[in-house]
Design a protein that fits this description.
Layout (H helix, E strand, L loop, with lengths): L9 H10 L1 E5 L2 E7 L6 E6 L5 H17 L3 H5 L9 E7 L8 H9 L1 H5 L1
Parallel strand pairs: 3-4
Antiparallel strand pairs: 1-2, 2-4
Length: 116
């Protein structure tokens, strides 16, 4: 994943948290906001997980989901098919333990019909 498609600075996360819209489920919150970059970017925040192995596994799974679904932030925001330029922060807590990539995909894609 290219570094330009990631949120890397704390001010970028703060901007999304302040300006973005939230969608919550058990153990996970998706926060998305438009950006001026013209491409989607991803940020991952895993809190409350004391084990670095579990924390990094969640981050790996989220990045892998994003790699297969790079337009997910645009779809989440209800944008048109060709419209990009959204920042997405996936914030999880200790209750969020995906069983694998398929489980994570099911959870994230379940957010899309709820918006319609």
């Amino acid at each position: 994943m290219l570094k330009v498609s990631l949120l890397t600075k704390s001010w970028q996360y703060n901007h999304v948290y302040k300006q973005g819209k939230r969608i919550r489920a058990k153990g996970v919150t998706l926060v998305y906001a438009p950006n001026t970059r013209g491409h989607n970017r991803l940020g991952i925040s895993v809190s409350g997980m004391k084990s670095a192995v579990k924390r990094n596994r969640i981050k790996r799974l989220v990045r892998e989901f994003y790699r297969f679904h790079p337009m997910f932030p645009s779809a989440l925001a209800g944008a048109k098919e060709d419209q990009t330029g959204f920042d997405l922060v996936v914030a999880t807590n200790k209750r969020f333990i995906p069983k694998g990539l398929d489980h994570l995909k099911t959870i994230f894609l379940s957010f899309l019909p709820a918006l319609s």
